[in-house]
Amino acid sequence: MSHTPPESARFAFTERVNCPVCGRLDFQILKKSSYDETLGEHELRRMYSASSDTQLLDQLVRCKGCGLVYLNPRIKQDIILEGYRNAEDPLFIAQNEARILTFRQCLEGIMRRHGVSPGTHPRVLDIGCAGGAFPKAASDLGFEVVGIEPSAWMATRARARYDLDIRAGTLEEVDFKGERFDIITLWDVIEHMADPATALQRIRSLLHPHGLLIVNYPDHESLARKGLRSRWPFFLSVHLYYFSPATITRLLNHHGFQVRETRPHWQKLPLGYVLKRASAHLPFLGMFAAMLEHRKMGMRAVSYNMGQTLVVASREHG
Ligand SMILES: [Zn+2]
To answer: Which residues have CB less than 5 Å away from ligand 1 (the ion)?
Structure first.
């Protein structure tokens, strides 16, 4: 006999949120929630691990004030955070070599285009550093890096593997004891943050006045999203916000940042891994992944862009 929790139990796990960009709670529904009514708290907590493949089940809305697309209502913050704290993802961490290469090339480009170097901007903070790929790439280029990561499992492995300053905890929890940074990065992180507005305020206070903020995010206005529509692979229950160049610029400006550059972010990953992740949305790709694995071609790195957008912003003075 199946047990269906009463309606009130399901609502105990969700919360309504105001738009973090303009503060309004007035929206148009783009897609209704499609949660299985019988999902219990245990399943919800399991779903919220960092690179969870769970397709978007929550209600997707567009703010009538500023146009931001986001989840509302959504699963409560403490459930989301607990998922990240307990995240263990050997498959994710196994792809670190390709991630390090992506970050190295990306950072070299930023250094060239923005006149940044370890001489001018020595101290870097990477928020949500997962397996430590970006801290490793930045350290190899001569920067002095601190990484923070809510998952103790990931932080421990990253620290041991690369011998870097990786601290377990969230941006709210880690005590920086007056430390300041020249560059702060959020790689595939801002769309996961329950409260990006408060995070940006904290980031601003941690940045030197000449400092740079580097953010990438899945762009709701990208061609990939428009072409793939509901099959866009970034539509996931763990992605709470779907920014566009306009909405992220407005959010950054509001918190004292000036956007200097917006461009597509190309990621290198082993082909087998890309196909395996994508097969959650397009099941036939799973067959290709298995075929590549069989022919030992799965580790060949491919560059792909599915709508990830890179933003480089500077701290406004004052
Ligand atoms: Zn809004």
So the answer is: 19, 21-22, 63, 65-66, 68
Whether residues 73 and 132 share a domain: the answer is no
DSSP string, 222-290: SHHHHHHGGG-TT-BTT--EE--HHHHHHHHHHTTEEEEEEEE--EEEEHHHHHHHHTTTSTTHHHHHH
Ligand 1 centroid vs 172 CA: distance in angstroms? 24
Tokens of 10: 């399901």
Centroid of ligand 1 to alpha carbon of 190 (angstroms): 16
Indicate if 107 and 215 belong to the same structural domain.
yes
Q: What is the pTM of this model?
A: 0.87
Q: Which of 107-121, 175-189, 273-287 is the least confident region?
A: 273-287
Question: Which of 53, 85, 117 corresponds to the end of one domain?
Answer: 85
How confident is the model over 236-278, as pLDDT tens digits?
888 999 999 999 999 999 999 999 999 998 877 766 666 776 6
The answer to whether the beta carbons of residues 255 and 204 sit under 8 Å apart is yes
